[in-house]
Amino acid sequence: MSDPAAETVYTAGRVWTGERGGVVRDGAVVAVDGRIAYVGPAADAPVRAHARRVDFGPDATLLPGLIDCHVHLAGSRQYGWEAVPAYQRAARAVADLGRLLRAGYTTVRDVGGAIALGLREAVIEGSVAGPRVLAAGPILSQTGGHADVHSLPLRWAMEQEDAILADGPSAVRQAVRRICRLNADLVKICTTGGVGSEFDSPHDTHYTPEEVRAVVEEAHRLGRRVASHAQGADGVRMAVEAGVDTIEHGYYLDPAAVDAMAARGTVLVPTLVLARVYRETLAAGTDMPAYRRRKQAEAMDAMAESVRLALAAGVAIASGSDFVGAPGREHGGNARDVVALAEVGMGAEGALLAATATAARALGVDDQVGRLVVGLDADMAAFGPTSPLDSPAALLDGALAVVQRGRLVFTSRAGALEPAPLTRLRPRRPAA
Ligand SMILES: [Zn+2]
């Protein structure tokens, strides 16, 4: 294991800084005390005698560590996971963190579930190898909303730890305080029904504007961003106008919804890879319930259209897979979302931005990660021999090497993961 105070010079045939056109041929990144001290041509790098040198080779491309803005570290291995104890799912989720790290992910935002709150701490203390986690904790939903489990007794739904059901401005305000009491990094709410919830429609708007404004006001006052699960256009627009920071899914966008997002700078996390996952699961035939198959079939064509509409309106787009660990949504394959974004019209560099710099901005941690620039944390991943800048599908082969806070924690040659203590990511306070 390397010395945390060590100075390391990482070199690669190409270094991409996480900025448009930011490619350095025969580049170097110098990491000192966990932070980036130099990025530029290797020939000009200030290399002191005691510095360690790691060369990833002429065919490697060094990128900022990837960021997935929408995961669930739920340890799910099947569609209905409610009957699986949380301690069993947590053990699986530890394995999922390792898969994410090998895939080049150094930051993930878990948008709902109690397990991620504990995983975040285990990663920071160095007990577990994985990306740093930003955790929403329990999802806030109206009674009968997307985070409810409609066909189970209400008593069960009220007592489970992965969601809070609350109705009315004062109750949702109290719910935000409970979520912050768990030390969540953000607040996740649901302003529409969903593909995955039984007795609602993605087109139903959930919560009133008054309730969502109360959530946003309370969360922002307590320094937390708000992410809204929102699929139908009306629930998207309502949430945007109430001031949420990111829209998750946005499957059925319309011109009014994308214009509102562009005007307010709301970031869209389209979870576009799910359009492919939906198509594959329908073709494969699973034990998935009929309502879910029907809603997936209805959504999958609209999803790509919505992303194109958002792109044309100038909406910022960040990558999020919505992978949970279940078949077809296994952690480790999360970069399939980057490939989907590239192919829908963002191009290779645009899609990589969605999984690095834009993702960091959406999470409020762009002053810490997401780009290879002096002063940021040295979180990086090397890929090759095919460069993801030429073909994003190269990401799916996994990383050649991963660096967290300046330490080499994984190489594909050695295979093993070396967890090390990390610092806590601290999202900047959102604007009130
Ligand atoms: Zn989700």
CATH architecture label name of the largest domain: Alpha-Beta Barrel
Total domains, how many? 2
CATH class descriptor name of the largest domain: Alpha Beta
- SSE order in H/E notation? EEEEEEHEHEEHEHEHEHEHEHHHHEEE
Biggest sheet layout: 8 strands, mixed
Kindly identify the CATH topology of the largest domain: TIM Barrel
Shape descriptor = globular
Q: State the low-pLDDT regions, or none.
A: none
C-alpha-based Rg, rounded: 21 Å
Query: Percentage of helical residues?
Result: 25-40%
What's the total helix number?
Answer: 11
What is the arithmetic mean of pLDDT? Answer: 95
Bound small molecules, by name, code or SMILES, are: zinc ion
- Report strand %: 15-25%
Q: Terminal Cα separation, in Å? A: 43 Å
CATH superfamily (homologous) name of the largest domain: Metal-dependent hydrolases
Structural class: alpha/beta
What's the count of strands? 17
Describe the structure.
The structure is a single chain. This protein has 432 residues and is an alpha/beta fold. The chain contains 11 helices and 17 strands. It folds into 2 domains: 7-65 and 371-411, Urease, subunit C, domain 1; 66-363, Metal-dependent hydrolases (TIM Barrel), CATH 3.20.20. The strands form 4 sheets. Strands 1, 2, 3, 4, 5, 15, 16 and 17 form an 8-stranded mixed β-sheet that branches. Helix 4 runs parallel beside helix 5 and helix 9 runs parallel beside helix 10. It is globular. Zinc ion binds next to loops.
